[in-house]
Specification:
The complex is a heterodimer of chains A (277) and B (258). By secondary structure, chain A is an all-alpha fold. In chain A, 82% of the residues lie in helices and 0% in strands. Chain A has one domain: MetI-like (MetI-like fold, Orthogonal Bundle), CATH 1.10.3720.10. Chain B is built from 8 helices and 10 strands. In chain B, a hairpin with a 2-residue loop joins strand 4 and strand 5. The longest helix of chain B is centred in the last third of the chain and has 18 residues. Classes of the chains: A mainly alpha (277), B alpha/beta (258). The interface between A and B is medium-sized, with 20 and 22 residues.
């Protein structure tokens, strides 16, 4: 393997080794959570923090209960989730396409790279007003903003992934007189899978961020972002935090699903092997 | 396969040179190499690093273009990598997402042949190198020596006329390396392929070869060819025989090491 490939693969290994859940780290983690929740409960109750602005844990749980019983927000949840998934799908498809085109064609790469770097540097959220202006307050603008934010890591990781195979691996394929298509399908693409999946995972969270920002910025008619904005304008903090809890749960679930997919697809990469052994 | 002077020439290099431009300097990697490999023979290219032996091998394999000279394989001029050639390198280059047998069958896929027709052949080869139980293992579950065994099966899967071996066991420890050399000789004589081995190990070259092309560095050129008359199959006892030592000494003298 190349040193780069090994680096990419072993970085994951180290991270996972560190987070390997020994009994001790489980205990430490639990204690941290208990202390955090206790402070969260006690400080607003004692008046150290303003309970109206920072409600306690129990207030938040009550809010969550209200939210679930109320049930008026399913449409918001569905709208946000569907926008996230649609934007992610578009962003991933676009990112992989761009990555493959640039990763396999030196000419296109030379032509585009400087602009790509400029685009990467741009905090893409600044495009939100433009996109909302152009596409209106509906789901189109939400999706467009999320796509603009989320496609980049997929693009870059695909490009990098295709160049991961070592010189020896390329030479071996050349000694078989492999065509460029075969080189791509049998060597470059499988080599790129692990790092592309990492990009796709980042893209998922970025897509979520993009949709929420769009919902908060625009006067969207629905969505979890709109819900947060409305509750906080009403100073209804328990419900605001309840929605944030929902957002957190969704984000963790999305990442977990991506983690499972990643583990299944790249069982052979060094990071995964490190975890098993 | 016993050496036979009547056998046909498979590879012929005539006046082959390779020059690189490095800034305003011209570096001559290989200068006027005339060499041939006969069908079924085991030929070694022996010399210090920088003598152009790997360059010569890569030119034979079509991975490099010669600056001058003519290379013919089976009477045809060489232009690009051919499918009747199998190359092996110091690194096994096993793809980690493929099992051993899938790696062995990779050339068949690349050549667009029907994989099903070659599964039995792959299993047979793996059995010959004692890897049957690892056919479904992944390369990262295998030791370096076992990976090279699999690479040996892979290079033989499509029955190449010519094997080009660039220090294939150079990264292995001395013990594994000797075993692997034995395996290589066994499989090469079994398949009847012609083999060209690049090595800087003198006794390895004497042990393995029918003929040794001794080369020197800067510029890389051929010093001379040593005929190795020992019977096949070669046995490890050969290392102790005085005739063996004599040839090693002869090679050392040619290389200016004696």
């Amino acid at each position: 393997m190349t040193s780069t490939a090994a680096d990419v693969r072993s970085r994951g290994k180290e991270l996972r080794k560190q987070s390997k859940s020994t009994t001790q780290s489980v205990i430490v983690g639990t204690v941290t959570l208990v202390v955090f929740l206790a402070l969260w409960e006690i400080l607003p109750t004692l008046g150290v923090l303003n309970r109206v602005l920072i409600p306690t844990v129990s207030d938040t749980i009550w809010g969550l209960g209200q939210l679930i019983i109320g049930g008026y927000w399913w449409e918001d949840l569905a709208s946000t989730l569907s926008s996230v998934l649609i934007a992610w799908t578009i962003g991933v498809a676009f990112g992989i396409t761009m990555g493959v085109v640039l990763g396999t064609s030196p000419f296109v790469r030379t032509a585009i790279t400087p602009y790509a770097i400029a685009l990467q540097a741009l905090p893409k959220i600044v495009l939100a007003p433009v996109l909302i202006g152009a596409l209106g307050f509906g789901p189109e603008s939400k999706i467009a903003i999320a796509v603009a934010i989320c496609f980049f890591p997929v693009w870059i990781n695909t490009m990098v992934g295709l160049s991961l195979p070592s010189a020896a691996e390329f030479t071996f394929m050349r000694s078989l007189n492999a065509t460029r298509v075969q080189l791509f399908r049998k060597l470059q693409m499988p080599s790129a899978v692990p790092i592309v999946l990492v990009g796709m995972k980042h893209a998922m969270l970025l897509s979520f961020t993009g949709v929420l920002v769009a919902e908060i910025l625009s006067s969207a008619s629905n969505g979890l972002g709109k819900l947060v904005k409305e509750f906080s304008i009403q100073l209804n903090m328990p419900l605001t935090l309840a929605v944030i809890t929902v957002v957190l749960t969704i984000a963790v679930s999305l990442v977990s699903i991506m983690d499972v997919l990643e583990r299944k697809a790249v069982f052979w990469s060094e990071s995964e092997r490190g975890k098993k052994s | 396969m016993p050496k036979n002077n009547d056998s046909k020439v498979l590879v012929r290099l005539e006046g082959v040179s390779k020059k690189y431009q490095s800034g305003s300097n011209e570096i001559v990697a290989l200068s006027g190499l005339d060499l041939e490999a006969r069908e079924g023979e085991f030929l070694s290219l022996l010399g210090p690093s920088g003598c152009g032996k790997s360059t010569a091998l890569n030119i034979m394999g079509g991975l490099l273009k010669a600056s001058e000279g003519i290379i013919t394989i089976a009477g045809e001029e060489m232009t690009k990598p051919r499918r009747d050639i199998g190359m092996m390198f110091q690194q096994a280059v096993m793809f980690p997402w493929r099992t051993t047998i899938e790696n062995v069958l990779l050339p068949i896929e690349v050549f667009g042949l029907n994989k099903k027709d070659y599964v039995a052949k792959a299993e047979e080869l793996l059995e010959m190198v004692g890897m049957t139980e690892f056919a479904k293992s992944y390369p990262w579950q295998l030791s370096g020596g076992m990976q090279q065994r699999a690479a040996l099966c892979r290079v033989l899967i499509h029955h190449p006329k010519l094997l080009l071996l660039d220090e294939p066991f150079g990264a292995l420890d001395e013990f594994t390396r000797e075993t692997m050399n034995q395996e290589l000789l066994r499989l090469q004589s079994h398949s009847g392929s012609t083999a060209v081995l690049v090595t800087h190990n003198i006794s390895e070259a004497v042990f393995m070869s029918d003929r040794i092309a001794v080369m020197s560095a800067r510029p890389g050129r051929l010093i001379g060819v040593i005929d190795v008359p020992f019977e096949r199959p070669r046995k490890p006892e050969l290392y102790g025989r005085p005739e063996f030592t004599k040839l090693v000494v002869q090679a050392r003298e040619m290389l200016g090491l004696a």
